[in-house]
Task: structure prediction
Amino acid sequence: MSDDDVAELRERAANGDSDATDQLVELAGERGDIEELRRLAAAGSGDAVDVLVELAAEQEDLDELRRLAVAGSGDARDVLAELTGEGA
Result:
């Protein structure tokens, strides 16, 4: 997918196109693009949060898991507890 295609998806997502948001989440997950996923999560994408939790768990990124847990992700809290024995 070209940079122009991604820019178009971002524009569509910003205008409320959930299909565009879903595509961006999928692309960002495939690329491991944490910043894109954070941006999408901040815009309200629960799927982006889910992918962030998955990536953070795979990388054992405790700081990211803590950040997500504090932001309200129960999945992040659960994974963090599994990895460390602590909560948020």
